[in-house]
Amino acid sequence: MENAPFFIVGAPRSGTTLLRDVLRLHPRLECPEETHFFRWADPFRSPRYQKHYNKSRLFQKHREIDGIDNFGFHLSLQRGSSRGQLQDWYGREFLRVRGNPDGRWFDKTPQNIYGILLISEYYPDAKFIHLHRNPLNVVASLLEGKVMPAHDLMGAVNYWLESMMIMRQYKSANPERVLDVSYERFTEDAMSVTRIILEFVGESASEMPYNKMSIHREMNKYRRVLDAQEVGKVLKITEAYRAEYGY
Which residues, given as ranges, of the chain have pLDDT below 50? Predict the structure, then answer.
């Protein structure tokens, strides 16, 4: 069986949590809360890198949800020599905590797209699921600030735009490692898209308990969040990439 990890990446507020929750219904698959180990540009174990994990209450909360011992995590962080070692330790420990030591872990941190080259180097067999969503709805969610801190318009747009730029360049060199998944298509036909994803990552689609899948579809949020001027600005800035992905 395939045991190389795979990674769900893209812009935040694109439905990555929904996709993660569906995939971890599979008896072999386990995914923790967001780790962000590959997100930061700061070198591993540099003071600025470690600050994210020593100071952040959010990441401490994630470890509590995952059942990861705080002492063990910091020991691994201090003794490890690379992000890959830290990610491996976390994945194995999460499988143990979940009572599925022979299972397969995957990661859902959309912002890890900023570290996709490092992930590819540490995990040469890893594949990437690139989840994308209409930029108007991504921007609207980020402006609301209900899950993440509220962004201004350009900050929200650039979360979507930069993830698209990175993925375009990565796919041009590694098309076989990336599966593009549309949020809109996934929420419309979750069973078929889930089968495609499982086949792409090398898991048995027949083991998936499709009757347990719960899909909440949120469409056209932007209409109650963005005014006409903001809609026009987002459409103009994202035009080239929207056309490529059919938005």
Answer: none
